[in-house]
Structure formats: structure tokens, C-alpha cells
Amino acid sequence: NEKRERVVKASRDVTINSKKVIFQVH
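Predicted structure:
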């Protein structure tokens, strides 16, 4: 469960960072 939670958090952080980058680019 811990590993899965870490993966979920990491994926969320990646998606948030990607969104921020996209907004900055545009």
C-alpha cells in the first residue's frame, strides 16, 4: 500500500508540475 501511495503522489506531482509548465509556456 505504501508503494502504491508513493506512486500515486509522485504521479500527481508530475501531473501538477506538467500543468504548471504548460501554463508557463502558454
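Summary: The first helix runs from residue 2 to 25.
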